[in-house]
Amino acid sequence: MSKALIIEESSMKKPKVSVCLITYNHEKYIRQCMQSLVDQQTSFDYEIIVGDDASTDGSRAIIREFALRYPDLVKVLFHEENVGPSQNYRDVHFQARGEYLAHIDGDDYWMPWKLQLQADFLDAHQECVAVYCNALVLTDDHKFLGVFNDHIPEVFDLGFLLAEGNFLNNSSLCYRSRYRERVVPHAHFLDYLVHLRLGCSGKLGYLNKVLVVYRVGSETSILVQMTDKCRLLSWETLQAAQHMPVSKAVQRNAVSLFIFDVLHEGLRRFDMPFLHHWMHRIYRESGAVRNSAMFVGMLRVCASIVTAPPRRMRRFVFGPTAFRVLHSR
């Protein structure tokens, strides 16, 4: 790990919530993000820890500006060399002193009451190890597309999360700090693995309120830059889930969702080597749920083809940017 510069530790007493902000080359977005953090309306003390992974744009100047303006609120971890998102994530989360830790990526931002509502929820729901919320989806050219998800129970468990796929927004996560060692992996990972590990530790909560604005398709988005890498990490996450305390039916559904994604992407691109590689790997590595997951995954593709005309008609009537749900059940 590279050495890092920490700008002046906060002198305030131990906060109730630590905001963990991860950023890399977010010059276009970081001011709006940080302003939304200092504008949080709370009845308790909180701190903001910013981890900058050796940005090469103007991000650091903006971060320094906030650190100097709010010295009792903002603490900064500047990496001198690029350590990658996973290590940056760990470094920031393990600097946090709060009872609750709230994560945000540097290209997203929050509504002013987000921290208060989530802290109140965790105070009232001792069975929950973490709480999430809904998010408004914003494009890089400032168009609102819709919301991140819908119809999520207020309290759910690991089985529901694995069966439904990764419907949670990472910048909406707020969890109890005592679980960070279990949930923050050492190696490269997707946020889905963090959510699943939290689900192994207890119930998860959900506030069906739009408290986050999620910027989809930004030029710094990991999903834009690492689609194939993310697919590989998604599969490795599902492999890890085979050892989690869930039923075979839940595992089958999770693998079938991944198969649907592979088939959909391969057919869309007419990429036979891609399909051959992934279907062979899934068949080889999906264990006891192999055959049933393959069958269900193919049924999902068939159902998608059948329902495609209504979706095209909807786009024709309402336009390509019609308000929609990114992760609809």
UniProtKB/TrEMBL annotation:
Residues 18-131 form the Glycosyltransferase 2-like domain. It comes from Chlorobium luteolum (strain DSM 273 / BCRC 81028 / 2530) (Pelodictyon luteolum). It comes from the Bacteria. GO terms for molecular function: hexosyltransferase activity. This is Glycosyltransferases involved in cell wall biogenesis-like protein. The keyword Transferase applies. The keyword Aminoacyl-tRNA synthetase does not apply. InterPro entries: Glyco_trans_2-like, Nucleotide-diphossugar_trans. Keywords: Transferase.
